[in-house]
Amino acid sequence: MRGVVVIFLLLAICQCNVRVTSQECSESQPCPFVGGDLFNLSLSGPMSDLVSSDGFLEVDLTVAVNPVVIEWLTLFRRTYNGGFPGPVWRFKPGDTVMVNLINTLEYRDSSNSFNELRFPNTTNLHTHGLHISSEEPQDDVFIHVNPEETFTYEYQIDSQHPAGTYWYHPHLHGSTLFHVHSGMAGMIIVEDNPNPSITPQHLLDVSCPENCHHEVRLLFQPTLLYADNYFPSFPFIENRMNVNDSFQMSDTLKDWLKNNEVDYFTTNGQLWPEITFQAGQMKKKLRSVKSPDDDVSMGGMQQYQGKLLTIKINGTQTSTVIPTSLPAKQSFVSDFRNLTEDEVTGRFVIEVGPDLTLNRERFQSKTNFRFVANLDTVQEWYIINTATSAHPIHIHVNNFQVISYNNYTGPIGAKVMENKVFFDQNKQQCDRQYENFNKSIQAMLPDNDYNKWLKYRGHAQRWRDMESHPNGTLGYSPSGIFHDVILVPPFSNITIRFRTDRFIGTVVIHCHILYHEDQGMMMVTKIVPAGANTTGAHIKSGDAYPGQCSKCDPFPFNQVVGECSGSRRKHFNIIILVTGVLATFILFIVTE
After folding, report:
1. What's residue 44's pLDDT?
2. Is residue 354 within 8 Å of residue 511, measured between CB atoms?
3. Which of 77, 326, 348, 413 stands the most exposed, by the fewest C-beta atoms within 10 Å?
4. What is the DSSP letter of 466?
5. Which residues of 279-427 form beta strands (DSSP E)?
6. What is the mean pLDDT of the chain?
């Protein structure tokens, strides 16, 4: 199974590092990779940052094919500014950031069908995680920057924007996977407020701009994927894109990389670098956890167990107390868990389905809005998964808070003879399917899909158990945490809340397995001004609301549900347990 993976940070504590250099390696005489170079701060440290000054940052970001050298292997990849990874942007809340995206790729672009991999030489930008407008010239992911064209983005960073680490990457529908795997990505750092009354001193002591030497940036990229173990291999992606670059590596070398199981991530462009700390020096604790329930909570997602880097600790073991205080949250990410029903304005369901669908359809157009909400309202949405595999769901513009994992009462989606069909939990075909469903189909739920339902059901109870125990479970999020991406296991029902703060415009929702997103596992909603008309959205697919199997099944947007006489609005069973952070782990959503 291919999919999103969880990357465990491997901390190799060692006394020495011996590199094998006796064999002369080349592309005509390949040999196993060694890695182990010293961690290169010049690639990731503050001296290479593009930093704002007097409230303004201008970036020239040039897209071109450049050589990427990893030991004896030279890859020719689409990158930014000839570097790998792209440059770090660093600015403050309230700044203006202007990015001139200069596409120097040649004017020859393959074009497959819609919702297929295509457009290898056309690009754009997405500022992942930023709370920012989705309208042009800001974070509009439907902009096309064609070959030999330039587009200027102008981002107005809100004065209340949370400090933190974000990232930028292309988001052109059809080529996102190819470009990100090529190496087109970089970090964004929104600096802490230097006022100690706002940012605790212990954070200022280890942060830019005054203490940049304490910062260690880690950007993990799927650079050397050739064995097709966790994701589609890079040659597979190139073939699906109909890329015919003259500089592609030979088939002989591709076969060697595949046969030798070369499926590696790089760290800041390096293969398995080594970084050394003195005991007691680390100011930020990185820890990963694993529990017996992880496979179920992850929904069968494969977990990448490969090496990322080596961390050496020198000196005498010490006991260090790490302060945990953080700056106060902004109002738009305040705690929404204890709101009354009257304080929640809009309700909607995001349904993850079989055949790479959201709300039972693949992506159609940037104006096919599946829901419309007013600005400055609190939204309560349910993310459910009717499919037998997990998917990470990403919502642009506004971060959302996890409220609860609920009992799953929805349908079971399956592929039957190449048809997408929904069944109830008693294995009977639903009477509510989707637009253009062939009503002559009378199917039975396959045993394999039903067995997965039996395996994965029960997330609500497992999540409640996680909330009550300190070790946690890898695939679930504690209540109260804010996200822009959340993993949605098979047959789960997750309640989230967020405020439609500051920005009107399109809100893109998609699976963050980029192979799935490029194939149409994406939809759009819209935020309109306060008091504006919110009707006209394409909420249903055919006669089915998302999450429905029968005409009487509840859809939480409606006060009166379905077509059953006397039906009244029903609520999902929401149980909220307020706890502290149970475990700290690193979850890297990487692209398939």
Report:
1. 52
2. no
3. 326
4. H
5. 310-314, 346-353, 357-358, 369-374, 378-385, 391-395, 400-405, 412-416, 419-423
6. 86
Instruction: Please provide the DSSP assignment of 28-42 as one string.
Output: SS-------PBP-HH
Answer whether residue 161 shows pLDDT above 50: yes
> Distances in Å between the alpha carbon of 3 and those of 126, 142, 143, 354?
21, 25, 27, 14
Token duo for residue 268: 């800041």
End-to-end CA distance of the chain: 11
CB 308 within 8 A of CB 263: no
Q: Which residue has the tokens 């993310």?
A: 383
Q: What tokens appear for 25 in the block?
A: 């390696």
CA 338, CA 327: separation in Å to the nearest integer?
A: 21
Please state, in angstroms and rounded to a whole number, the distance separating the CA atoms of residues 358 and 555: 16
pLDDT in tens, 544-584: 999 999 988 888 754 445 566 554 444 444 333 333 322 22
State yes or no: pLDDT of 7 exceeds 60: no
Quickly tell me which residue has 């297929």 as its tokens: 116
Identify residue 66 by its one-letter amino acid code. Answer: N
User: pLDDT of 368-423, one tens digit each?
Assistant: 999 999 999 999 999 999 999 999 999 999 999 999 999 999 999 999 988 999 99
Nearest partner of 492 among 392, 400, 393, 410, judged by Cα: 410
Query: What is the pLDDT, as a whole number, of residue 379?
Result: 97
Rounded CA separation 411/94 (Å): 46
**H or E element in which residue 252 lies:** helix 251-259
CB 561 within 8 A of CB 553: yes
Mean pLDDT along residues 160-172: 95
Rounded Cα distance, 373 and 367, in Å: 15
| Rounded Cα gap, residues 349 and 410, in angstroms | 11
> 10 Å Cβ neighbour count for 386?
26
Q: What is the pTM of this model?
A: 0.90
For residues 344 and 499, what is the distance between their CA atoms, to the nearest angstrom?
9
Residue at 535: amino acid letter: T
Instruction: Report the C-alpha gap between 436 and 439 in whole angstroms.
Output: 9
pLDDT number for residue 109: 80
209 preceded by cis ω (within 30°)? yes
Q: Alpha-carbon distance 569 to 559, whole Å?
A: 5
CB-based contact 96:56 (threshold 8 Å): yes
Q: Yes or no: say if 144 and 89 are a contact pair by the CB < 8 Å rule.
A: no
